[in-house]
Write a structure and sequence with these properties.
The chain is an alpha/beta fold. The chain is built from 23 helices and 10 strands. It is globular.
Length: 453
């Protein structure tokens, strides 16, 4: 790779935190020390280990791996089991139409193992249940699918997991906004596309990204604030989608880049500040030729600029005195884990700051810079990745057990599923805690059974 400095830092940085880098260096050492060439099958397996967590210290490797996965899928096709496991809306519809299917997967001693084998789900994994009413059905009943009058308005991108698996999270988001007197709009929306990107389904990823981009930009042009509550959706829509868009001719023209120069945003230097690079040195590597280059670059940048994490949006309201702080006391002791896809957006831990406003709630952060739950979306359900997910998440689980909290709080539903599998504590999204502290009507379902229950 032209961007690699051969410093070998990744070996020590990621030796316990990333299944991909562990296997990458194992294969490299095997080739260098034992003179055994890396086989095509080994490369294929290596690509399967990348979950696009965002913690990678190398800026180009993750999207290069996604490109490799896409080429494999173009040659081989997407396995049925992989497509179904990643398509939460389709699974929700299927389980709603055939409710016995999930029951069989969970408990039938004869058909359950057979179905799990077909779906390639590890036998130790308990699938989450799908509620009878998903969030989008609830939102339509409330008329939230119609853009309300008033200013400011919020257009809310709920994502699949809050939309179909844990609708109490998305209902809590709506109730928090309404409690603060802010009209809410829930537009038509698809899966953000991240699960299909991670599996290498380029066509489906671009189709979903394009559909969501159209809906969200319509709301942005109408003056709405755009918010999301899933950090993975945010990581995809704010960061990955705009990947390399700043190098496009359209963007360079928009910022009046001089001939022979590239202007790259430098937020660390201040607002509207840039790094100025010489084209003759960088034009071969800094081009808008990545995974999403077929989508209009200025649209990708506009969406990235306008879309906000829900917690970040609430902290902005609080900073200008517009956030209601009439919280009821919650005399409980909890830990908060900031997931990988939030940390990689470089916005701090806004929910932690907000929850510290709740009277009598003891909420402390847990986990370090490279701590990961190990789940990787739905990768932890897969037969080949299940044990790896437990190994990767082991250090974090040890830290949480040492705290022995009454509950765990995290923004990421994948982390929630992993915590439910590994630990005996109930798990909540920060929006559920804030909604409780506001005394909102939405009530959380009983926590999902954990391995320790």
């Amino acid at each position: 790779m032209s961007l690699c400095a051969d410093c070998d830092t990744c070996r020590t940085m990621m030796e316990e935190d990333c299944a991909f880098f562990i296997e990458l260096y194992r294969l490299w050492d095997q080739e260098q020390e034992e003179k055994k060439p890396i086989t095509e099958a080994q490369l294929r397996y290596l690509a399967e280990l990348c979950t696009l967590c965002g913690l990678c210290p190398c800026p180009k490797i993750p999207m290069d791996v996604m490109e490799a996965k896409s080429r494999y899928i173009e040659q081989e096709g997407m396995p049925f089991a992989t497509r179904m496991l990643n398509d939460v809306p389709r699974m929700a519809r299927l389980c709603g139409t055939f409710p016995r299917l999930l029951k069989i997967l969970q408990s039938n001693s004869v058909l359950g193992p057979l179905l799990r084998k077909v779906m390639r789900i590890h036998p130790d994994r308990e699938l989450p249940s799908f509620p009878k009413e998903n969030f989008f059905q609830w939102a339509e009943q409330k008329g939230l699918n119609r853009r309300p009058e008033g200013s400011p308005r919020v257009t809310y991108f709920a994502g699949c997991t809050a939309g179909y698996l844990f609708p109490e999270v998305a209902r809590g988001a709506v109730e928090i906004l309404l409690h603060n007197g802010i009209p809410v709009h829930v537009p038509p929306q698809q899966c953000c596309g991240m699960p299909f990107l991670v599996e290498g389904d380029r066509e489906r990823t671009l189709e979903l990204a394009g559909a969501n981009l159209k809906q969200l930009l319509q709301a942005a042009h109408a003056g709405d604030d755009l918010v999301y509550s899933c950090p993975t959706c945010g990581f995809f829509l704010k960061r990955l989608l705009r990947e390399r868009a700043y190098y496009s001719d359209a963007y360079q023209q928009s910022v009046d880049a001089a001939e022979g120069e590239l202007k790259v945003p430098a937020p660390e230097k201040g607002e509207n500040q840039f790094w100025i690079l010489k084209k003759n040195m960088y034009h071969r590597t800094l081009q808008d030729d990545g995974f999403f280059s077929s989508i209009e670059p200025m649209d990708r940048i506009l969406l990235s600029d306008r879309l906000m994490d829900f917690g970040f949006y609430l902290t902005r309201l609080h900073a200008v005195g517009r956030l209601a702080t009439d919280f009821v006391p919650l005399p409980e002791r909890m830990v908060y884990f900031a997931p990988c896809h939030l940390r990689e957006q470089k916005m701090g831990r806004p929910y932690l700051d907000l929850m510290k406003l709740i009277p009598e709630l003891q909420i402390d952060p847990v986990g370090g810079e490279y701590d990961c739950c190990g789940m990787g979306g739905v990768f932890g359900y897969k037969e080949h990745f299940h044990q790896k997910s437990l190994d990767l998440g082991g250090p974090l689980m040890t830290k949480i057990r040492a705290r022995n909290p009454q509950a765990i709080v995290t923004d990421c539903i994948s982390c929630r599923l992993q915590f439910n599998h590994c630990l005996p504590y109930p798990v909540f999204h920060p929006l559920e805690i804030l909604a409780r502290a506001y005394g909102c009507e939405s009530t959380a379902r009983p926590h999902e059974p954990s391995r320790a229950d």
